[in-house]
C-alpha cells in the first residue's frame, strides 16, 4: 500500500492521461475513496482539457455525416441501467479491480477453435444452434472490425482470458483458452464489472476450460472478471475474481 | 430587443433560404444543456453539440495522433461514445466540453500507445519531423480568446512544467516516458505535472462547481 500523499502526487499525471492502465485503475480507486482528491482531480482534468483549445481544427466535412449516421443506429447506455448495479461486497471488489488489472495485446491466431459459453437464457437445442450461429457471426465481426481493441490477462494456474472490443460495433467477445480444470461441482463464470458492481456475462459448462462468450453492453463495464461458481452460475460472485481484464 | 424576428415577425423571414439556421430569438444552449438532452436520446441536440464541439475534438485527436486519417477515426469513435454514454456525464465533476475532450484524449492516447506497442514505431519518428511546421500553422490560425489565454498561461510555467505537461497531453507520452525524454527523475516529473497543472488552473481561472 502506498502512502496516500505519495499516490496523490499522481493527480497531475492522471489528469493528463500520462499513466499506464494499471496505474490509472489504481489511482481511480484512490479518488473514489478521497473526496478532496476527487475535487482536485476534477479541476486538473478540466484544466488539462483546456489545453486542447490550442489544437482547434476543422475536420473533413464527410465526418459529420459519418458520425450522425453511426449515431442513428447506436443504442445509448441508459442512466437506469448504469445504476441498476448490484451491491455485493463492493469494497472487496473495488480493492480487487484496482489490484488485479493487467493489460496486453495477444495474437488471436491460435484461438480459432472455440466453444460458445452456455447462456442461461437459451433453452432447447434448436434455439441453441441458432444462438451459436448468431454468436459466431458476432465473434467474427468483432475480430474483423477495424477498431478492435484486445486486452488480455493471465489466469493463475494457466491459461488466458482475452477480451476483444469494437467500439464502432458496440460489441465485444471474450476468449478463454486452457484455463485450469475447475474443481468438482464448479464452473467458470464471467462478470462485467462497472465501478465495482458485477453483472453476470455468462457461465461456462461444468468442466469447460476453453470458450468464447459474446458480451452485451460492454460499454458500461470497466473490467471483465472471472470466478469459479457452483455449476449453473451464481447471481452474484461468491469469491474474489481469479483473473480480470481491464476494458477501459 | 423589439425587432426580434420570429413567431409574430415579418412573413418574409420564413421564406429565406437560410431558414435552417436557428431563429434569433431562441436562447443560446450551451454544451452542458445539450449533453443533458443528448442523454435523453435527443439526436437534434447531438447534432448541435457536434457542430459546437467538433473542431476541438478533431483538433485534439490530430494534435496527439498527427495522422489525419487516424485522427478522423478516433474523433469519430469518441463522438459516438459521447452519444452512447451521455447518461454518465456528471455536471458536478466538470463541464460537458471537458467531459467530451477527456473521452477524446484518452482514446487518442490509447491509439498512440497501441501503435507504439505494435510494429509502426517509426510512424512516431516520422511524425516528429512535421512537428515544427504544424505548430507554425496552428500559430497562424486566428487565435480564439481561449487559445490566446492558454498560450499565455503556458508561458507562465517553468520550462520543466511546460515540457512535462505538453509532452504528456499533446504527444501522449506516459510520465515515465516524459521523465526519460527530459532526463529527469520520476518523482520530479510527477510533481511538475501536478504543480504545473495547478498553476495553469489558477491562471485560467478553472473551477468545478
Any overview of this molecule?
The complex is a heterodimer of chains A (248) and B (209). Chain A is globular and about 60 Å long. Chain A is of the alpha+beta class and 248 residues long. In chain A, helix 3 runs antiparallel to helix 7 (90-100). Chain A has helices at 4-8, 11-15, 21-32, 35-50, 62-72, 79-83, 90-100, 125-144, and strands at 149-154, 160-166, 171-177, 186-194, 197-203, 211-215, 223-230, 243-246. The model of chain A is unreliable at 80-123 (pLDDT under 50). Chain A folds into two domains: 4-57, Arc Repressor Mutant, subunit A, CATH 1.10.10; 98-246, no CATH class. With 209 residues, chain B is an all-alpha fold. Chain B folds into two domains: 27-134, Rna Polymerase Sigma Factor, Chain: A, CATH 1.10.1740.10; 142-209, Orthogonal Bundle (Arc Repressor Mutant, subunit A), CATH 1.10.10. Chain B has helices spanning 31-39, 43-65, 68-85, 96-117, 122-128, 131-140, 145-155, 159-171, 175-181, 186-204. In chain B, helix 2 (43-65) crosses helix 4 (96-117), helix 3 packs across helix 4 and helix 7 (145-155) packs across helix 10. Residues 1-26 and 119-142 of chain B have low confidence and may be disordered. At the A-B interface, helix 2, helix 4 and helix 5 of A face helix 2, helix 3, helix 4, helix 7 and helix 8 of B.
Describe, in short, the structure shown:
The complex is a heterodimer of chains A (248) and B (209). Helices cover 34% and strands 21% of the residues of chain A.
